[in-house]
From TrEMBL, chains A, B, C:
<dbReference type="GO" id="GO:0016491">
    <property type="term" value="F:oxidoreductase activity"/>
</dbReference>
<dbReference type="InterPro" id="IPR044043">
    <property type="entry name" value="VanA_C_cat"/>
</dbReference>
<protein>
    <submittedName>
        <fullName>Rieske 2Fe-2S domain-containing protein</fullName>
    </submittedName>
</protein>
<dbReference type="InterPro" id="IPR017941">
    <property type="entry name" value="Rieske_2Fe-2S"/>
</dbReference>
<keyword id="KW-0479">Metal-binding</keyword>
<keyword id="KW-0408">Iron</keyword>
<keyword id="KW-0001">2Fe-2S</keyword>
<keyword id="KW-0560">Oxidoreductase</keyword>
<dbReference type="InterPro" id="IPR036922">
    <property type="entry name" value="Rieske_2Fe-2S_sf"/>
</dbReference>
<dbReference type="Pfam" id="PF19112">
    <property type="entry name" value="VanA_C"/>
</dbReference>
<dbReference type="GO" id="GO:0046872">
    <property type="term" value="F:metal ion binding"/>
</dbReference>
<feature type="domain" description="Rieske">
    <location>
        <begin position="8"/>
        <end position="110"/>
    </location>
</feature>
<dbReference type="InterPro" id="IPR050584">
    <property type="entry name" value="Cholesterol_7-desaturase"/>
</dbReference>
<keyword id="KW-0411">Iron-sulfur</keyword>
<dbReference type="GO" id="GO:0051537">
    <property type="term" value="F:2 iron, 2 sulfur cluster binding"/>
</dbReference>
<dbReference type="Pfam" id="PF00355">
    <property type="entry name" value="Rieske"/>
</dbReference>
């Protein structure tokens, strides 16, 4: 199973890219350096000097250019070398790859595939930390596991009942019931109503209520979810569809999450979470972030242990269950898109 | 060189397996989880869920069953899945391997081969920590080395003269003389009398005496040894055979040791040591354990260094010496048994 | 690209080889132990016992011999086993490789190739710490990088302008100008005058002056350099050749440096530096060592990062620049010598 390259991957939080300071990350095994030039222009270059393969991320920003600090090659934002100390002629092959890069929703998105296909409309509609309609906290975790295992985890919430019984306070409903699943162009939509429950630890209630969760899981690995608790009967009243958020008892929250494959067996996981404005305050956000910190550490323990078992298994085979419908649909979508990418490359060659 | 699988391997001390708490170990590269169910039943299962290969050792005991805490598959002690959350049908292939497991002599023994051949009479007659006839201390060490190298070490006590000159206070006799070696059905017996010596640091004596050591080294890698000091002349009087333990001057001791291959290049070493009751007290046992702690650390330094040299040698070849008779006999026995196992599997297939 | 084996490699500082105490090092992936016997004789043996491959460096010196402390094999300085405990006969194949070894210039040099070709006149003329004409400090660094990358670094000083702008206070001259390069039998000579400059941090001057550097870089990876500052006009006066050192304003210094490949991807870097006597005192030497400590750490950061990028690159290709003339010449020399060695071995076989 491979990954889609013609997609926007989250490389960093906006705040991680300081002015004139190269940042290093590996995405899909490609070393990438990202910097903001003097003009504020955001640049993402292959992090490998053409001369002797030193990382450009150890280099120095000069205007909007980046100088390798080993022997001084100077790079344009588009990747061409424009200066080779001690040499007049600059070979045309003296260039590194320049990646399309966009800053949006407080994230730095890098397009890892064919530059001519980079389409900003494919950036998932995450919510930025500065969005006035939300009060969000955020964090990130590095995994010693392949991204696919984290995607699989996020594509099947039945694990909440077991992995997160204490942190999220999830009851047996997640494992006992199926979410409504709708295929999207570049992902899967999950909708789930849990009726007549007192909610989980993050949204506990003294009276029974209806609890709503809806999320899109989008290529390459981005989860965008709205959740909230509503008066008993809301689920039935809206025919298990989308409720009027204004009718929520409390706690309509939104979370953006992104899984980025670094190398074949390592990944970075970015997340934000918090209430819609009017549905909670900073204290509520902080409580949610405390729960998230505990819960995401639980996932990490399980998934990294799973990776170790997989790695020591000769021919690892999974046995899908009824809850894996979404996992299977999403992975088929990834395979279809990855295959089409390969086909396009074959035809072009 | 391979290992015998149709054998009982020490997986843990009895005390390591707490009630209702899965324990994880890898034996011969197989991930295994061991637990005591509510009824007290001891269970050893393949530590790999059929669903997505998460380790069952992160699971939860429910009665005598074990639930995977990733997505909730519930396993019987025999390995079958009996519950898949959100799904009625349970495929017959939804089962993991269940290993024969026995608690005896304070050790948990797991049979790593064909279950139908598991024969409790093959469990080596170690001495448990609770045996009223002995006063035993115990410990364990993990090695970054293959089990075979530790076995080889224990099969040739000529190393005592060099590796343990200070800790055991072993003199030149171990390297200068040969033990009497007797092949057993599933191992080798070593007998050695050292005459007219003042003994080693663990059994020092003001007057010359005869020192006796006899041990069996048994498949898969278990050492069971009696040692003691006797009046000068005892060796000759018993024709270098088995002495009357009642005639010992002091310090008739017993040690049980077990070497368990975890992975191809890692091992766990379990040991107990102490006097027979009437031949020493708790203080004597503690003195022995202090010596053992020092000596076994000396072995670990040498064997892990040996492993590093072997690993960086293109075609590692050993050059056996006269002292290697027991090593050679035991390794031939292992190869013979391993080959027979392979043959049996071929015929069955 | 391979390394030359018929060459003297620096294995250690003289002071590292204490009397009767085996020292362990790996050179070109060969495990080697070095010791001084009772007579003071220096011995270098393959660090791998013929018996069970334990490292002899864990052994004990007995006279000028070395005893393996696993099972007691005793080795002559020439590598033959002369004692096998418990055994009369000693097979003729019971021998390890003995390496030609010489102590000179405060370094222990080991010849890694065919012993019959070992020629002490090929030892590079480094300056020892005890040379009365110099006041030298010294140090060493281990690299997680292949030796070739460190050699390449030392063969192109244009990196001083970028990597060491602060530590050495190197200006743009190193990248802007070419050194004069002269091929030697077993290396390359670099000469460089920087005219009308106030010098670098290690040789700052209130008035403009001419700065001189000349170094030989010799097989297998030894740098020997003289540097100093001279009155303005000296460069022109001596036609950019060798100045009269007596005319130096201050600070004529000498540095010996050696790069030793340990394994395929690790290396050890030895260095000394200081003024000629009469050109500076202990305080000047200590100032130089402080600068060197900072500068060599800068190299290490860059080169180890370069190694990581190379390792994750499928088919790593460099793109040489005008400054790489010396790098190219030296690496061609290495390839030529390595090829001749291989040819000699083929013919002999």
């Amino acid at each position: 199973m491979s990954y889609v390259r013609n997609a926007w991957y989250v490389a960093a939080w906006s705040e991680e890219i300081a002015p004139m300071t190269p940042f290093a990350i590996t995405i899909l095994d490609d070393p990438v350096t990202i910097y903001r030039g003097e003009s504020g222009r955001l640049v993402a270059l292959e992090d490998r000097c053409v001369h002797r393969l030193a990382p450009l991320s150890l280099g120095r920003c000069e205007g909007d250019r980046l100088r390798c600090m080993y022997h001084g090659m100077l790079y344009e934002p588009e990747g061409q070398v424009v200066e080779i100390p001690g040499q007049e002629q600059i070979p045309s092959r003296a260039r590194v790859r320049s990646y399309p890069v966009v800053e949006r929703h407080s994230w730095i998105w890098v397009w890892m595939g064919a530059a001519d296909l980079a389409d900003e409309s494919l950036i998932p509609p995450a919510v930025g930390l500065d969005d006035p309609d939300f009060i969000l906290g955020h964090g990130q975790l590095d995994y010693a596991a392949e991204a696919r295992l984290i995607n699989d985890n996020l594509l099947d919430f039945s694990h909440l009942t077991y992995v997160h019984a204490e942190s999220f306070g999830a009851g047996p409903e997640f494992a006992a019931t199926q979410a409504k699943i709708t295929p999207l162009d570049r992902g899967i939509r999950y909708q789930r109503w849990i009726e007549n429950s007192r909610g989980s630890s993050s949204r506990a209630s003294p009276v029974p209520m209806d609890s709503y969760m809806c999320y899109d899981f989008l290529i390459p690995g981005v989860l965008l979810m709205t959740g909230g608790v509503f008066p008993l009967g809301t689920a039935k009243a809206c025919d298990y569809g989308v409720p009027d958020l204004a009718e929520a008892i409390s706690g309509v929250t939104f979370t953006s999450q992104a899984v980025t494959p670094l190398t074949e067996k390592t990944s970075r996981y970015f997340f934000s979470w918090g209430p819609r404005r009017g549905h909670g305050d900073e204290a509520f956000r902080d409580m949610l972030m405390g729960i998230a910190g505990k819960a995401f550490a639980e996932d990490k323990v399980m998934i990294e242990a799973q990776q170790i078992v997989i790695d020591r298994t000769l021919d690892p085979q999974i046995m899908p269950t009824a809850h894996d419908k979404g996992v299977t649909l999403f992975n088929r979508l990834v395979e279809k898109l990855a295959k089409a990418e390969q086909e396009r490359i074959r035809v072009a060659a």
